[in-house]
Design brief:
globular, 35% helix, 8-stranded mixed sheet, N-acetyltransferase, Aminopeptidase, 6 helices, alpha+beta, 8 strands, transferase, disordered N terminus
């Protein structure tokens, strides 16, 4: 089965305003832009993705393997009204985090419009009701108050401060169980 045929077997989800589709190599230009926004670099970190080729490699090596292994991972968020690629939301099997890590990031022009909650709420419900996941975790920096508020709005509770492998920064760990 070719990769293109295989990709169509992974689930796409919809909300009132959004399509959540598994990120694919064809999304490389968008991923390049997103990974280089000031907030991504400040809160998530510089992934050293500086060219379109870097973005394609990042998708192939960092995003697609989990999708192929688990059937879910990083989703590109597309606004239904104009097909604009606005951000990403995903369930990540992240080293150093117990349970799946829910994460989200948007291009600056789409922040503050409720899209992150809409997409994250959908993925949280899908995780519990379709994928059989029992616990969702999230990590965020101490300075990312908008992320902290969103996690709390999703029903996640602050558990403790933690660090993840290869990163010395102390992060806030949030969790919710089914």
């Amino acid at each position: 089965m070719t990769n293109e045929n295989k990709m169509s077997t992974y689930k796409t989800f919809e909300t009132a305003r959004l399509i959540l589709k598994p990120t694919q190599v064809e999304d490389a230009a968008f991923i390049l832009e997103l990974l280089n926004t000031p907030k991504w670099i400040e809160y998530i970190g510089d992934r050293k993705v500086y060219t379109l080729e870097d973005a394609k490699t990042y998708i192939k090596t960092r995003m697609l393997p989990q999708l192929e292994k688990l059937g879910y991972g990083n989703f590109t968020l597309v606004r239904k009204e104009d097909n604009a690629k606005m951000g990403c939301c995903g369930l990540y099997d992240r080293e150093g985090v117990d349970g799946l890590d829910i994460g989200f990031s948007f291009l600056p022009e789409y922040e503050g419009k409720g899209y992150a909650f809409e997409a994250s709420e959908k993925l949280k419900n899908v995780a519990f009701n379709e994928f059989g996941i029992e616990k969702i975790s999230a990590i965020t920096t101490k300075t990312n108050s908008s992320s902290q508020k969103l996690l709390e709005k999703l029903g996640l509770k602050f558990v403790k401060y933690t660090t993840i492998p290869n990163d010395e920064e102390e992060l806030m760990l949030y969790e919710i169980t089914k």
